[in-house]
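Deviations from the work plan: none for this task. Representative record:
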Amino acid sequence: MSALAPADLPSAFGIEAVGAARSFGSVHAVRSATFTAPYGAVTGLIGPNGSGKTTLMLMLASLLKPDAGAVRIAGHDPVTEPGAVRAAMGWMPDLLGSWANLSVRTTLELTGRLHGLTRPEARTRADELIGIVRLEAFSTQPTRVLSRGQKQRLSLARAIVHDPRVLLLDEPASGLDPEARVELRGIVRRFADEGRCILVSSHVLAELEEMADSAVYLDAGTTVSEERIARARMSLRSWRIRGLDDAALVAALPQLGVDASRVHADHQGTLVGFASDEAAAAFLTHAVGAGFAITAFAPAVGELEQTFLELSRDGERTAAQQLADRAEDPKEDPNKGSTPKPPQDDGGLR
Amino acid sequence: MTFATGLGTVLSLELRQRVRGRAWYILLGVFAILVAVVTAALTFALVGLSGDSDPDAGSGVLSTIIYFVLLLGTLVTPALSGNAINGDRADGTLATTQVTQITTGQLVLGKFLASWITALAFLAVSVPFLLFSVALGGVRLDTALVSIVVLGFELGVVAAIGVGLSGMLQRPLFSIVVTYLVVAALSIGTLIAFTLGGLVIQSTVTSTSRDFAYVDEDGTEVCSEPMTYTYSTPRFDYFWGALVANPYVVLADAVPTSFDRNGYPDDLFGYIKLGVRQTQIAPDLSPEFDACSYVPIASPVPKEVIDSTVPSWFVGALIQLVLGAAALALGWRATRTPAGRLAAGSRIA
């Protein structure tokens, strides 16, 4: 596979969504999704269960029509130009379906042919993909005998049969063992380095942490605004601290300038909240300078997870606030927490 | 990729994934054995028993085999076609096909063709037995060819209805059952409607008859006074149209009938055609019988009945064609992506 030259690309963004919304009957699965995902990078799509991640993915994958707003994949609108979108986009669904009676190789060959490859092209491509996702040992086996992890790799291979510029991966890491996850991460990072635009949704935030360059947060069907993310990032972040003599270290924390309200303990030891990396670094310098033998000092959770948790907390607060507000004013707009970004510059798309 | 290339890919995918399998070959084998038993029994009955071999035995055997294939084909095809689309959705393989360059039209049409071809495999298995019946003699080429073509058409209609319903309805089991119900409505429902309709609408027949009373002293036959009496008779002639779309009737009515010396049909198609055509003739509401001025009542021979009534197979075939095409069109509409309005409780992937 060749790296994609930026000149081929009509826009800096592989994925653009502006106020995209979709409801099923009275259920508003996605209320307003506004975000962009650039080429050459992995963008995480993060949100709690039921926040609309899969519905958003389906709109991006040209399977669902947005009720409102618009979506653009590689510069094309899935509603008016599904063919162009599908030529540029690969989608790995969260549901792992495969043609149970067909072998791995036949599955990939036929998928290639469905994408318009000629028979010899499809055959060559299938062999190539079997190598990329390391399913050589199973290439002639019917797909029904594959394990979950192997099916996941097959699903990834199927998504990239036509060498797409934009990749949508819906929960690609769920159910994978650690080794397979490391492997997946390697493959996804390589795709990004080749200049593709990759959107990965996942519950495994630690996994996304290592894979994603940036993230889109989805909360109750609405993409979270930049300000809210910034606010969430400013809140206290927990750092895990361990010393040779833990008891003495914990006892000395107030003298090191840490208020007792910022200190927590869990089954693994002590957690201390810091408002910023600078504050954490200053504390560490101070503690080491005071003669404490520190053996471990690191953020307890990753940045994405921290933001996600903070947003969830924030969301609960907002929801509670809204309920209280609504009790006073029944016409309260439920979407007031979000501030949709202005539409992105087309960059001469049309 | 041209439309035909994509269609071909979907077709080959369908035939390889959904159909091929050991169970399928066992089913075909069982079917072949059943046809063999039927052929052997019929041959024994028509040729072996009568001693003087019936020169037209072949057409009787051929028409029975064709009907047998129609029966089994319409029983198997709903199960093969009725989950073509929603079954893929349940397996999680529909959406991954829809994000390729394949259009919904290619997908639906490919699935329909695959189901049809699969149903035609039953016809293919019965070909040796059809050839055997031809070898028995008396089979007209046009009868054989037309019956095979109409049989193929009927299987296609069932396949189209099944694939269409599998696109319209969400649950595979439900769409298979509905396909069976449609087949039952065409095969048995039409017959029930015809019978009930005829029984509900009855006409009064006023029959006049004069009987032979006695012979007087001159040896002259003396007749009684004319007697009239009334009774009611079902009016099937108003309802023969209900049978038009019945697959068995379409098959019988479309096939050219050959008659023996006495004007009687020589195969099952002909007898069913005769039975259906007879219902077109209105009953005589004021029959007169006069035993004294005896004129033999010339009841028309089957050939005359068939020649004097109107064929209906093309109307039935047209109705079935519209049914199948409408099912496919609605199935296509419900399967299009990006999907707009979805039925409650349905999912796309």
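The longest strand of chain A covers residues 13-24.
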